[in-house]
Amino acid sequence: MSATNVNEVRKAGVEPDEWESLKAYTNARIALGRTGISVPLRESLQFKLAHAHAKDAVYSALDLSDLQKQLAQCGLPVYCVRSQAMHRDMYLQRPDLGRLVDEHSVETLRQLNRPAVDLSIIVADGLSATAITQNAGLVVHGLVDKAKQAGYSLAPIVLVEQGRVAIMDVIGRLLNARLAVILIGERPGLSAFDSMGAYMTYAPRPGLTDESRNCISNIREQGLRPVLAVDKIMDLIRSAFRSQLTGVQLKEDSNADSLPT
Among 130, 167, 208, 212, which has the highest number of CB atoms less than 10 A from its own CB? Predict the structure, then answer.
């Protein structure tokens, strides 16, 4: 922090923080400064605003019609289904219901009667539909393009309302997929309310738990950019098919030098 900036901060009644220079590298709440024994009013208001954004993200809803149109441009059928959580409050209070597909949706997917495929791509609102709205389109389009180039067969894309991560295993099994990938809104933090996660399971089936899945987190423009996330997801997909497994036994290939910038 320059001497001029320090003087300006002090004139405003705020004591500067020696960590100020580190703010260029992180969105975390560091180097807030202080006014007496309290944080400055500006930082207090910023915290309250971030908290409001996080709450809004949790209660945000998918625009299914618009998202379905976006994803249909990939050239695959797109189906909308629901979990057994009938509304948002039930979803938040009963995580178990968010992991199960409702009866009507089960019947819809069963009637597709699809032959076995390599890959099923699923998109769920999770805890932040905002994250899906902002990031899912780019990632799905990239995954579909690269999967086709790699010769993988693809199931129809499935959009899920009120979905939790484990619903991917039920849907993947219903679609007879060798590997399922779900893009889902992550729990909003106070510096990231638009973060999307990608989880994948080889040989998906109901009853699997977290150690059977791999996760790539913080997919957003200010975190892991969607274009880079596509490459990391594809690396894990290729590794999963080679090893015929996912989860704690599957290690992500370190291939950062080959990623586009």
Answer: 167
